[in-house]
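TEACHING EXERCISE
Course module: macromolecular assemblies
Task: Read the component lines below, then compare them to the predicted structure of the full complex.
Student: A.B.
Group: 4
Components provided:
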Amino acid sequence: VSAPSLDLLRTRALARRLEAVLNVSDARAAARRTLPKALFEYVDGGAEDELTLARNERAFHDLTFRPRMGLINAEPKLGTTVLGTPVSMPVLTAPCGGMRLVHPDGDMGVARAAAAAGTIPVVPAAAGVSLEEVAARVPAGPRWFQLYRFHDPKLMAGLVERAQAAGYQAMVMTMDTVVPGNREQDRRNGFSYNMRINARSAVRQAPRLARHPAWLSRFVRDGMPFELANIAGPDGQRMALPAMSRMAADSQSPTWDDVEWVRDRFHGPVVVKGILTADDARRAVNAGAVAVIVSNHGGRQLDGAPATIDVLPEIVAAVGPDVAVLLDSGVRRGNDVLKALAQGARAVLIGRAAAWGLAIGGQAGVERMLDIMRAQILRSMRLMGLTDVCELNAAWVERSR
Ligand SMILES: Cc1cc2nc3c(=O)[nH]c(=O)nc-3n(C[C@H](O)[C@H](O)[C@H](O)COP(=O)(O)O)c2cc1C
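Instructor-supplied answer key:
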């Protein structure tokens, strides 16, 4: 079989596999088969007893819709604007580190899929490809950059300047990673801060990795990219994910002064991610944020943190209509998106849903996840009698008894 037809066969097989994936939970199951256990659990897992992880999803289930009949015939509108930028649907991709380990398409694949879907990717600092490369190779369109607080102001200032120069429109400052969350299964799996990832440890892991031949061959062909493309250590060398997390843990916690510091350097909107109380939302706005992301990091940081959909209404009420409130953590269905918007969110972000899509099909897998979300939102809007996502408000949902 000649090379081009082999490619064609592969593309067709992938398309068939993706067609069989009907929802996010199918994608998760397929990702579990595709990825080595440690990597699947790195993406999937939450902190400690995973109470917040479970609560994130359950809290969406506890809301029910108040549908209306006999109202519409036309195709509902699900486009909206976020910070003035039009998006084709109210779903952005969340910043997730380590995505190039999941699939060689990595951060590029997520960003390209988001662009293809007409929405905004939030590109993580902990990306496997440089922020400039993403900017150069993703079709023109809006994109945001996510920043952590690093110990080294030079590193932070450099990232802010580079993101500015590369045309990222907004800077997302993550506040909930004072220390890394206690994800015990990562430690059990050796996916931890002391992990030595190099060719030798890869050889040692070989028997386990061999159970996932498709992933392994892609990973090896990609040159086993453990390094983070944006982050250089004190020695000037690019760092690997665990080393970066350790460095972040060694540095001072992010404070509101850091948000002001970013606001003074970045010529564009600053968004604060990781807000869970009305007070903090107000503080974020006072420090210069024009939008906040209500997030518990997908249950990966403080176990026992509340579900984001539960605290969303008090945060929306606290900041008022001029501040955009976004939400992530636990969004698995189009219905979750509609519930978040009904509770006052401008849009949501998906983390794991995109990562599982990436695991099973690279960029095409993320596109499939976004297509599924879009189709689910549209169908539910018709069933609810809703013509435009912008009409959603608290009258459309109630807490189930
Ligand atoms: C594998 C993984 C890596 C993540 N890395 C980052 C990161 O580098 N920066 C960040 O702000 N959030 C990070 N997050 C959190 C996501 O941005 C987002 O808040 C979370 O995934 C939302 O929950 P969901 O996965 O239930 O959609 C990560 C999440 C996952 C699953």
